[in-house]
């Protein structure tokens, strides 16, 4: 049976290769191996936090809880639409960058050395690291 079943998603057990995958799963459910981590399917990849760490692009310097805004000191280029991950001792989540502000002005991209403000999906903390994933 092993040969028939092939590889399965380690999270939801959906087959990712073999005839069941080819004939049923991929056709009807649109499931395929994740590009980030081939041991899970594309539907589970976002729920697996340690799939990829990504490239570090900066760190949090402030968090304004009343605005849900985090300030990032950038060590690399970033632009609107990038997907980032913020990780610290008690922080770990990923989100898309829907807007970037520099000194209260909206910009579409920012560079190393810039201090940017972004809307964050969850609470962040100074010294949390920011990764582009
Ligand atoms: Zn899965």
Structure in words:
- It is a single chain.
- The protein is mainly beta and 133 residues long.
- It has two domains: 6-46, no CATH class; 55-132, Elongation Factor Tu (Ef-tu), domain 3 (Beta Barrel), CATH 2.40.30.
- It has two helices and ten strands; from the N terminus they run ααββββββββββ.
- The strands form three sheets. A six-stranded antiparallel beta sheet has the order 5-4-10-1-2-9, with no helix packed on it. The protein has a two-stranded antiparallel ribbon with strand order 3-8.
- Strand 6 (100-102) and strand 7 form a beta hairpin.
- It starts with a helix and ends with a strand.
- The structure holds zinc ion.
- Residues 9, 11-12, 14, 40-41, 43-44 line the site of zinc ion (ZN).
- Secondary structure class reads mainly beta
As an assembly, this protein is single chain
Rg estimate, integer Å:
19 Å
By CATH, the superfamily of the largest domain comes out as Translation factors
pLDDT averaged residue by residue: 90
Please name the CATH topology of the largest domain.
Answer: Elongation Factor Tu (Ef-tu), domain 3
Number of strands: 10
